[in-house]
Structures are given as structure tokens and as C-alpha cells.
Amino acid sequence: MKHTDISELFAVKENFIGKQVTVCGWVRTARDSSEIAFIELNDGTTLKNLQIVVQKKSADQAVLKQAACVGASLKVTGGLVASERNIIEVNADTIEVLGVCPSDFPLQKKRHTLDFLRTIPHLRTRTKTFEAVFAVRSQLSMAIHTYFQTHGYKYLHAPIITGSDCEGAGEMFRLTTQPWNADYKTAEEYYADDFFGKKAGLSVSCQLEGEMAAMGLGRIYTFGPTFRAEHSNTTRHVAEFWQVEPEVCFAELDDIIEIAQEFIKYIIKSVMDNCPDEMQFFNQWMEKGLTDKLTHVVESDFARVTYTDAIEILKKSGKDFKFPVSWGSDLQSEHERYLTDEYFKKPVFVTDYPMDIKAFYMKQNPDGKTVAATDLLVPGIGEIIGCSEREADYDKLKAAMEKRGMPLEAYTGYLATRKYGTVPHSGFGLGLDRALMYVTGVSNIRDVIQFPRNYGTL
Ligand code: 4AD
Ligand code: MG
């Protein structure tokens, strides 16, 4: 269909003013005076609506009646004129109704609650909020690729179907073609009969494959969906989320922290530069002060604290936490929130966690108690990055796996990389959905994903 994007009309209006244009889109609002009808049209290319001005006398009444319904889709041709109030408007000559929209269309009002919109995920991209969310999501993804592509990383496509649980947290979704009523004596027998001849599942992280590729390619990143059978029904957990995972050889913990900080600043800046309308919208409606907050994040260094010092800070906070604070237990989200929202008031890298609460692959520190790992916590959300230097020593890695009772035969290739020319290397995983929450101020992860997947809902 020959037509012009509404974004283009606003961006280079001088090329179009005084000329005939054809636009397509959906009716966001429509109002009426005795002689003129005003229709606000949106085509998804910009947050801005284009006002269509219709002289009622000269319009086909039946068409106008259908065209003035919220939600209807139209193709409109007319002269583009400058307008004091709306910047530009179209004086409609012809209107074609592409799709009528009956009055039970749920988005009749101008503003709806996010709770309500969550019940109609198939329609919520017709609202400004979700138009903005998905524009920023797209830009953020682009920025992630651009950062790594311009810093010498190769984009690796690791498998989604895997036989090994990277995080060892037992959150892997099982993948099977077995009939539900199969009657086997042992689990081994049952899995042996399955599609791959062994137990398989959906990847919780591409890190292990990423490490194996990096030990040859030098620097890689993966970027795709990962899956976790998370039972936690929180505002920051979903069962399917997007993760970007760089893996860098010849890099120790301090090096990867530097990279992570530079990378986060880069992607935030890219969104601010490329999505000004969306960011202004979020600043006004989602989180007051958002753009100041992000500008500050881009311009200053993140804080850094060891887990051990963080525990002391929490103990001295005088706060009545629901979960007790003690060295050796994992930080709960209330603890993370105190550290970022109240104490540091900016993103903070918490480093050197106790070995026993972290994954097997993390480099063991000389103290014998902690690992060279860090989580990046940000105000309002908590953890957005999980990061570590990897254990490069074959014997120490094997011992850590055995201690956790891991089936070594499922990790022979991974262990082999430590046997054949092992090197210091590090990497991290950023949850795209959580990063998007941070840059938009959206407080529920279900509102940054088209169709969020959670325990009990599909
Ligand atoms: O901290 P995690 O579990 O780290 C890893 O998976 C490492 N293998 C990454 C690596 O070093 N290559 O997860 C990384 C990030 C978290 O910080 C969080 O942002 C996100 O992934 N994440 C989730 N996001 C939404 N819903 C969930 N259930 C998530 N679990 C993790
Ligand atoms: Mg983590």
C-alpha cells in the first residue's frame, strides 16, 4: 500500500506541507463539532498521533460514522498543513475504512491501568505506553548488538536445547516427546527412550557454550531467550526471558566489571539518544526524574562493595528486614533494595560472594571462602547482571562440580577447555527485560514483555 509513515511526516514536515499525503493507521480518539470531525491517527511508527480533519458536510456519512470509531483502521488521503496546536494536520479528502471497530473494543478510554492492559496483551500495543515500551526494547536490543559488534565480539548462536543445567539450580524445563503414560521402571530407562536418548531441557543460560566458543574465538556474546522454571511470582521474575551473555578471554574480574559498566552506560545512552519521545513519555508518566537518573548513571561511576562489607552495611542499617542478615546467606531483594535505593543510591557491583551460595563455575578466591563473582544491583529493581571470573583451573573446577554432586559426564567438553590451554576468562549475563524495566521505569516485568510467561499462566 503506497503511504507515508506518520513518523516521517513529523520528522521532515517541510517536505510534505502543502502536498497531498496518504497515511494509514488506527484511530486513537475521535471527536466532533457541528461541522468538523477530528480523528487522531496512530500507525505505530511514532508515539505522536496525526490529527485528521474532516469536513462533515462533504464527507460520506456512512464512511465517517465507521471512521470515527476508536480502534478502526483507516487509509486517509489529504493535504498536509502546518498546525499551531498539533504541528501538522491532514485535511482529509478521502477516507477508506480498512477495518471497522465495534464499540466493544476494550481501549475506549484514553488511559487504562497497567493491570487492566495485562489482561489484553494482544491489544496493548495499541496504547502509547506499550508503543513506547516496545520501541525502547527494540532500540535496547540494537544497542546491545552494536556495542559488542564494535568491540570485537562475535555473535554466537548457542543451542537452546541442552543436556546440562548451567546454573545448577534445578530450574531447567524438561523437553520431551515421551507419551504421558509411559510406564518405565527407572528414570534412566525412561530418558533413554526419549527423543535424544537422554534427559534434555531448555537452556537456562548460554554461558557454558559461550565459554567453550570464547576459548578459541577470544570474545563472544550470545543474545537470546533463556528459560527457567521459576516458581517465584515476583515483579522481576518470568519463566522465559532474554539474556545477553558476553564471554571474554584474558579477562579477570576487574576487567569484566569495567566492561560491564561501559556496556550498561553505552546502551542507556543509546536509548536516550535514539528514543527521546519515548523517554520523555516515561519520565512524565512512569517515573518522575527518570531522565535525570539515567543521565547521572551515564555520567558517573557505579559503586563497588564486597559482599562482606555489604553484610556489615545491612547489619548497621537499623532496618527491620523480613529475612535475617548473616554472612553466608544470599542477599534477598529487600537487602538489595536497601543497598541500591537507600545506601548507595546508584548502581552497585557487589563482589566476592560466599562460594556456597554461588554457581560451580566461579573462580575460587585465595581465601578459600569466596568467589570472584559480582552482581550488579540497580535502584528500584535489584540484580540486573550476574557476573564472574570463571574457574580456569581444571582440578579446582572438577572439585567444585563433584562437591555439588554434578554428573561430570554431562560436562566433559566444558572440563576439557581447562585441560587444553586454559586461560583466565570472565563473563556476565544481563537480563534484557530487567534492563528494560530500569531504563523505562516500568515496575513490573510483565509490562515489558509481549506475552509474559509465569508459573501457572501461559
Ligand atoms: O544471575 P544469573 O542466573 O546468571 C547466569 O545465568 C550466568 N550464567 C550469566 C553469565 O555469567 N553468563 O542470570 C543473569 C541475569 C540476572 O542478573 C537477571 O537480570 C536475569 O538474568 N534473570 C532473569 N530475568 C527475568 N526472570 C528471571 N527468572 C531471571 N533469572 C535471571
Ligand atoms: Mg544471579
Task: Give the class from helix and strand content and strand pairing.
Answer: alpha+beta
**Strand order of the biggest β-sheet:** 6-10-11-16-15-14-13-12
Mean pLDDT: 96
- Biggest sheet features: 8 strands, mixed
Through-space gap between termini: 35 Å
Q: Tell me the number of strands.
A: 16
Report the total helices: 14
Secondary-structure topology with pairs:
Blueprint: H1 6-11, E1 20-32, E2 36-42, E3 50-55, H2 61-67, E4 73-83, E5 87-99, H3 114-118, H4 128-149, E6 154-155, E7 161-162, E8 174-175, H5 187-192, E9 200-202, H6 207-217, E10 219-227, E11 240-249, H7 253-274, H8 276-285, H9 290-299, E12 303-306, H10 307-315, H11 333-344, E13 348-351, E14 373-378, E15 382-389, H12 394-403, H13 412-419, E16 425-431, H14 432-440
Parallel strand pairs: 3-5, 6-10, 12-13
Antiparallel strand pairs: 1-2, 1-4, 2-3, 4-5, 7-9, 8-9, 10-11, 11-16, 13-14, 14-15, 15-16
Helix pairs in contact: 4-7, 4-8, 4-14, 7-9
